[in-house]
Amino acid sequence: MIILRTEALTKYYKMGIVMVEALREVDLSIEKGEFVAIMGPSGSGKSTLLHLMGGLDTPTSGEVFLADRCISKLHDFELTRIRRLKIGFIFQFYNLIPTLTAAENISLPMLIDGKSLHSYRDWLNQLLEIVGLEDRADHKPDQLSGGQQQRVAIARAFINKPEIVLADEPTGNLDTHSGAMILDLLKRTCDELGATIVMVTHDPRAASYARRVIFLRDGRIVKVLGGKEGEITLQNIMTEMAALET
Question: pLDDT tens digits, residue range 219-228?
Answer without folding.
Answer: 999 999 987 6
